[in-house]
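Fold this sequence, please.
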Amino acid sequence: MGSVYFYHLTQAPLEATLPSLLTKARAAGWRIAVRGVEAKRLDWLDEKLWLLAEDGFLPHAIAGGAFDRDQPILLTTGTDMPNGAACLMAIDGALVAPGEVEALQRVCILFDGNDPAALQVARDQWKTLTGAGCAAQYWAQESGSWSKKAETGA
């Protein structure tokens, strides 16, 4: 059974934070699905990932292509993960089901700490997922580094 990590973004925006997390997940040997809620936002993120990756290159694609299975990182608005992802990164309030946490190595939920609606969605997801018995950690950005603020489950 996997665990879910909540990342409360306050110091750096998604497009600056996500490449670092994707790089770490790839270093763990995982394939990743990045789940969003709007196709236009994923198009925007696709462009940012090509430009802002720490090492200059994060191989990825937007779901719906002929080679989805081959992608180490797949951007999607759907719940299917044809690339065999071991890690799911949910952005912009994309929902995650408890069964997904159980089936994956890691789920990361990234949310904008400056957006009250995003905060509420993250709080609701925390309650839903921990209430279903999922192990969870809550991380916040402080002075440019991450600090673990809460943990539940094992």
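The chain has a mean pLDDT of 93. The first strand starts at residue 3 and ends at 9.
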